[in-house]
Amino acid sequence: MTPAIRQSPFACIVLAAGAGRRFGGPKAEAILPGGVRFLDAVVSCAIAAGADPVIAVVPSATSVPAAAIGVVNEDALGEQIATVRMGLDQLESTPVTGSLIWPVDHPLVRVESVLAVVDGGRRTAAPIVIPTFDGRRGHPPFFGRETWALLRAVKSGGARAVIRQLESRVLEVPVQDAGVIRDIDTRADLPDDHWRPSDAVS
To answer: Is 1 among the domain residues?
Structure first.
């Protein structure tokens, strides 16, 4: 672990509890070309970037990688902000300065992009840091600890509403990684067979 990570530890909450109705099943269990589950790809990338702990909020009966802490959300059709809050509950007693909030349907993000987001937060103390590609905001965003009360209290709009509330203080970090904006919503969105699991974490 580098000195920077020791001084500014951060977590990751993987949002993987959804039913995946448009995909045809829970995306936590969906498989990328090469045989890697979405959930395993995201957890692996978060850990490679230095996140500790990694909280994976998943449906019941979903196997969670040993390196992550699994939390079961039985309400697969519920609001995503509820999944965020379940992850935050696991972090209250930790010393982390903030957390990535990473939807499992963005499993193609490169570790370099995650490191750029985290570094942006460390350098500027921005409460929210968001990667961008070609001018578009993507995932995973970083939410500093000062935003957690807002995430818990927001009535509607979830994390996006908190971003709008703090818009003037949001830091955008441009990255050369289309994975940050690649939402795999249906099976047609999957990468082709030439994609390798290492592409997301190299």
So the answer is: no
Q: What is the pLDDT of residue 37?
A: 94
Report which of residues 148 and 183 the model is more confident about.
Answer: 148
Range of the domain at 68: 8-183
Among the listed residues 105, 145, 112, the one whose alpha carbon sits nearest the alpha carbon of residue 131: 112
Whether this model's pTM surpasses 0.85: yes
Distance of alpha carbon 129 from alpha carbon 48, whole angstroms: 19
- Amino acid letter for position 121: G
Q: Which tokens sit at 12?
A: 């990751």
Examine residue 3 and state whether it is found in any structural domain, yes or no: no
CA angle 40, 42, 44 (to 5 degrees): 65
Domain contains 174:
yes
- The per-residue pLDDT for range 26-36, each reduced to its tens digit, is 888 999 988 99
